[in-house]
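#struct-queue
[09:14] JT: dropping the first one here, sequence first, then the C-alpha cells:
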Amino acid sequence: MHAGSVARVSRRIGSGGGRGVEMDVKFALPMPTSLPILEFIAGNYRNFNARATRDALFAWWDHLQAGGRMYLAMAGAMSSAQLGITLAPAIREGLIHGMSVTGANLEESLFRLVAHDSYKDFPEYRYFTKKDDTRILKQRMRRVTDTSIPEDDAFRAVEKILVPMWKRASERGERRLWHEYFYELVQRLPRSKFEGDPRECWLLEAAKARLPMVVPGHEDSTFGNIFASHVKFGDCGAGIVKSGIEYMAQFYDDYRRLSRGRGIGFFQIGGGIAGDFPICVVPSIKYDLQEKVKPWAYFCQISDSTTSYGSYSGATPNEKITWDKLTERTPMFVIESDATIVMPLMLRALLEAKAHPGAAERIIRASRAESRKSLARR
C-alpha cells in the first residue's frame, strides 16, 4: 500500500465493558514508498496552479512513455538557485533531450561547481539597505536575490582557464558555438578544482551527453562581457564565437532529429529570449526554409509573470497558435508560480516514475480517475 492511501479497519467504539458500536474508521498510513513526491502531487495537487503542475507532470510522463523527447528552455537565475540538484540527474536519466539557456545560467552552473563553498547566502535580503548592498560589493560578491556569486573564486578563476582557450582558438582560426567552449572546459577541469558536487552540475551532465543546446543572447552574460573586453584588447578575435544566426542554423538540424517519432515537447522556465528563440524554429523551418516540420508536441511554462499587454513572458500559450509554433491539439499548460519550487518537484517525481514506471502508471491512473469523478459531479 502506498503512503497517503486510505486504509479501512474495523474499530469498536464504546465505554468500559459495554458492547459498543462497530464502526469503520479511515486513516492515512504513513507507509514508506519509492515514489513519495509523485504520490504527494497526485494526491494533493487538485486545483489552481497545483492542478496545472500535476497535469503538466502527467502529460510530460505520457509524452516520454510514448517515445517522445523534451526540450528545456531556461531563463532566470536557475543555476544560482541550484536547480542542478534535480536537473543534473534528469539529464543523466534521459528526461531532457535538448536545452536553450541564457548565458548566465550556462556560466553559473560552472561557478557552482568550482566555487560552491565561497558562495554566501542572504536570507534577509528583503530588508537590506543600499549600504548593505554596498558592503556586499566591497566583499567582491555579486548578489542574486538571496545568494551571491564570489567574483574571485568564480569569475576570475574560470577566466584563467577560458581566456587561454579563446586565444588558442584565435591562433588556430577555430570557430565554435558559445556553449562548446564551456562543454570542453567543464570536462577538462580536474576534480581537485571541484567545490560543488559534480553529480549536481547540470552543465557537466549536458556536456557528457553532448546535449543539443542554444545559448541565445550569450553576449548578455558576465563572460559575454569578459569576452568582449578581450576582443577589445586584441587578445582574441570576435569571430571565434559563432553568432546567434549560426545557432539557429544549427538548431534547424537538431530540431529535425529531435522531433522524429513522437516529437519533442517544449518546457519553458521564465520568458524572454531563452524561450522565444528556440520555439521559433518550427515556423522558421515551415515558412523560411519552406519545408515540412512537426509542431512542438507539448508545451508548458512556469512563470511568475502575469498575463499582460505585449509581454512575451506573460503571453498565454494559445497566442503561439497564431504564430504557428503550437497547434490547437498541443497539450498546453501554464504554471504561474516560482520555478525554484515547482521544477524540482516535477523533476524528482519524473525521476521516481522513471525508476518505477509500473507503480507510476497506477498512481497516475488513480489520480486521473478521481479527477473524472469530480468533473462528473459538476
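[09:21] JT: and here's the second one, same format:
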Amino acid sequence: MFDLIKAQLEDGILVFPSILILLVIFAYLLYRLFRNLFPAPVMTDFEEFIKLIGDAGCDYDPNQDIFYSKMNAWQRKCGYCRLYDEAAAPVGMILDAEPIRFEYGGKRWLIQFWKGQYHLSTGCEIGVYYTEEPDLDIPDLFQGAFYRCADNGNRLDMAFSLYKNGRELFHRQEKHWWLTGFKTGEFSEPWELTMRIRLVLKDHEMCRSFVRAMKRAGYREAEMLIDGAAVEFTFDKPRTPQPLTRVDETDWIAQRNNERLCSVFREITGEDTSWPEKLSAMREKGLFLYSAVINIGKTREIFKVFERLKSYI
C-alpha cells in the first residue's frame, strides 16, 4: 500500500479519497490483527461479582452469606437528611426508622437505626452523622438538618444482631460510621425483625447525651444497659414518627412485590452454592432479578435528591 502511495506522489496524481480509504482499511486490518493477538481479558464470574458489589458500595461475608457497607462506600459523600427516608418506600424499601438526635461537643448528632425489607434483601443499619451548620431552608424542596457522615475520627464501635421472629439472621461488629447487613433472598415484614444493638460512645458525656435523647424518643432507662460509655438496647417497634410515605396500603403492595421477587430468586438460585453461580443463573433465567440483586441495600435512587441539595450545603 505504501508503494502505491509513493508511486502516486511521484506521478503527481495523488487521489485523496482513495488514499483515505486505503488508510482506513489498513488501520482496520491492524486493529483486527492486534485484537486477535492480544484479546481483551474476560472477567471471570467471581471477578464480575466482586466488581458489582463494589459498585454498590458493599463487601461480602461468605460465612454469614450477607452483604455489608464498605467503609468508604460512595454513599459516604451523600450525608443524611430526612428526604432519604421519605424516598425509601416509593422504591420498594419498607423500613422501620429510629432517629436519635442529640448534642455533644458543639455538634448536633444523629444516630439512626433501620430494619426491614430492602427490596430483595432483609437487612438493617446503624448510621452515625453530625452537623455544625444551621438547618437548610430550600423552598419547595427541603427544610431541616443536613448531616455529614461521621469522619474516621468520629466513628463509633458498634455491634448488632438482627433477629427474625426470635431467630438470629446475622451479626455485625465494627468501628464504623455506617454498620449494615443485608441478606438477599430473605423476605421479612419490618415488625418481624428485632435489632439488639450495642454502641460505645466517645466518652461518658456523649453517652449521657445519647441516653437522654433515647428517653425523649420513648425508651425507658430500664430498657437500656449502660456500662461506662457503652449502651445496649433493643430496637423492635419504633418509638418515633415514621416517614410520611409509609402508608399501610402502599406498604402492602410493595411487600407483596418484594415477597414475589424473593420467592423467584430462591427458585432460580436454589441449587447454586456460590454468588458467582447465582449471578450466572439470574442472567440466564431472570434478568429483572439480576438488576435487583446487584443494587444492594440503599440504592442510588434513594440519594438522587443529593444532587439537588449539594449546591446548598
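[09:30] RK: nice, looked through the second one.
[09:31] RK: The first helix runs from residue 2 to 11.
[09:31] JT: good to know. The CA atoms of residues 60 and 67 lie 5 Å apart.
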